[in-house]
Design a protein that fits this description.
The protein is about 40% helix and about 20% strand. With about 300 residues, it is an alpha/beta fold.
């Protein structure tokens, strides 16, 4: 009987030892498996992060686009703010390096909206095209993008070739309002191109306007110190007159019903009017100053008008 009891005790002890050993190994194996999975996941995540850091994905800047190319195949770049269906268009540099200060005004507006995107009216998109004539700008300052005023020759005569694109066409004589092959600039004859919209730069604007709902346009020129309403023989659109008065009152520039100092043919802003788009020309006072305080006030007046 004692032997039987002894064997039962031994057997029970063995069962306890074996069972405990099995349970211990099972839990350890589970822990190792979980740790291994965690390590693999962590390792994969770290490797992915490392790979992404070493090979970042180049994402297209959603606030920038190329709307066309120049005669010499330079990009015409537009900067966009806001996501509304209606669009407010601001254009500089149609006369390239000759009116280089108009490009700098547009670049200054870009910096302004970069810092204050809340200025964009709700329901609208604001588009800035600082340099419509990159060939002409390149002729004078050696670049088609952002530049410094110190890059510009001090002689106004040295900037005159920059008025024209790579085909030696005055782009502000190449649009479809009273277009002529030979236009006038002050008392000088200039080329208006082989036909209206013969130039890739004016085609880029035409196509862009045709595919967007433009609520209003502001185009900078120099130099006369005034805000000019647009029209193409159908009178001044009421909204154009509103924009003219708003910009002039805020900026301190004088307001004009039209530009009548000499005959203008193929003018871009008058073509906007022909397309029933409210548009104004803002002529800076000189060829060397961006008059930012004046123009910021005018820009704010326009943006606030559409925010109401």
């Amino acid at each position: 009987m004692k032997n039987l009891i002894w064997w039962v005790l031994v057997l029970g002890a063995l069962i306890i030892i074996v069972g405990g050993y099995w349970l211990f190994n099972r839990d350890t194996a589970t822990d190792v498996t979980l740790d291994t999975d965690t390590q693999v996941a962590t390792s994969t995540s770290e490797n992915s992060t490392s790979t992404a850091a070493e090979n970042p994905i180049e994402e297209e800047n959603p606030s920038q686009s190329v709307i066309g190319s120049s005669a010499d195949d330079r990009d015409i770049v537009a900067y966009h703010y806001g996501t509304g269906d209606k669009e407010l268009l601001f254009i500089g540099g149609i006369h390239g390096g000759y009116e280089w200060n108009t490009a700098l005004v547009a670049f200054e507006m870009k910096s302004y909206l970069d810092k204050s995107p809340e200025k964009v009216p709700e329901g609208y998109r604001v588009t800035i095209i600082p340099v419509l004539n990159p060939d002409g700008l390149h002729k004078v300052v050696g670049t088609e993008g952002m530049f410094d005023a110190s890059d510009v020759p001090t002689s106004l005569a040295a900037t005159v070739p920059g008025r024209f694109n790579g085909n030696t066409v005055d782009l502000n004589r190449n649009f479809d309002c009273d277009w002529k092959a030979e236009g006038i600039w002050q008392n000088t004859k200039v080329s208006g191109g082989a036909s209206a919209f013969s130039e890739p730069e004016s085609q880029a604007i035409r196509d862009y306007v045709g595919s967007h709902e433009i609520a209003g346009a502001v185009v900078w020129y120099s130099a006369a110190g005034g805000v000019f309403a647009s029209n193409c023989h159908d009178g001044v659109i009421a909204e154009t007159q509103t924009l003219t008065d708003l910009y002039a009152d805020a900026s301190g520039y004088k307001a004009y019903k039209d530009f009548n100092f000499y005959e203008i043919t193929g003018d871009m802003v008058n073509w906007f009017a022909k397309e029933n788009i409210p548009a104004i020309s803002v002529l800076l006072t000189s060829h060397s100053d961006i008059e930012w305080n004046k123009n910021q006030a005018g820009i704010d007046a326009v943006l606030n008008h559409y925010a109401e």
